[in-house]
Amino acid sequence: MKKITSKNLSKRLVQYGALSAAALGVADASGQIVYTDLDPDEVLNVGDDYLLDFNGDFLTNITPTNPDGLTGGNAAIVFPSSGGAFVGITAGGFEYPALMAEGEMIDGAAGYTATGIRGDLNYYGCAYSNSQWCDAVVDGYLGVRFTVSGNTHYGWVRMDTDVNGTNIMTIKDFAFEATPDTGIAAGDMGPIAGIEENAFEGFSYFVDANDNLNVKSSVSIDNVEIYNITGQLINTSRIDASNGNISLATLPTGIYVAKVSIEGQSKSFKIVKK
């Protein structure tokens, strides 16, 4: 079990804030892409790691690591959860995650490293020929397969690495497909990323002490839909006004997705029922 130090705990809290502010998009009738933009980017100096939690349940799915004290140099590596693996290969007894380009598919047809085994990205500055994250990598995509409650999910992480150069790793953003056994393209943020947000100028929301989701806009809000984290629609409220509130009192404690529609546009965000 990984020791939770004060440094790692602070990373969890920072990441939880990033997840809560992330934009989420419903990809289609059968899928939902959950996208998290780290702002600012998570910079890993030598000796740092990052507890990456795709779905906001406070359980680490993978741990990008920039370790210190390795004989022969530094190495960018990632540790998956017990049910996780990376798009990549096994060679010579080591696991090598692939350096993926934007648009490449991450699904059941992709080849993967061994489940639960550490992956070597740019090992000792590409001293080994199977290391694909060689030299200075900018906007590389790591393909990930992991499990939640026994279900398989696919996701991606966008990173920069420069092992034995600046020796810095940078994690920029990540996303996963919330519908089990549904693939995702590297870099796919869901449709929300391309929506013009003119209708949402002046829009705000908050959950009050009485477990009401309060929404407010400068123009009339059409409706608000509430989804659980697996993408199941659990409530629809018609607003037809510039402000309104939706009771969350009957919902179990947890993280939900609220999708707001205004003038034919929609925007989704995470909310927390305490």
Overview of this structure, please?
This protein has 274 residues and is mainly beta. 5% of the residues lie in helices and 50% in strands. Strands 1, 2, 6, 11, 12, 13, 15, 16, 17, 18 and 19 form an eleven-stranded antiparallel β-sheet that branches. Strands 3-4-5-10 form a four-stranded antiparallel β-sheet, with no helix packed on it. A two-stranded antiparallel sheet has the order 7-8. Strand 15 and strand 16 (212-228) form a beta hairpin. The chain is elongated.
Short description:
The protein is mainly β and 274 residues long.
- The best one-word shape is elongated
Largest sheet, in brief, is: 11 strands, antiparallel
Helix percent band: under 10%
Low-confidence stretches: 1-30
End-to-end CA span: 27 Å
Strand content: over 45%
Oligomeric composition of the shown chains? single chain
Task: Calculate the mean pLDDT score and round it.
Answer: 83
Q: How many distinct beta strands?
A: 19
Rg = 20 Å
Give the class from helix and strand content and strand pairing: mainly beta
| H-E string | HEEEEEEEEEEEEEEEEEEE
Number of helices: 1
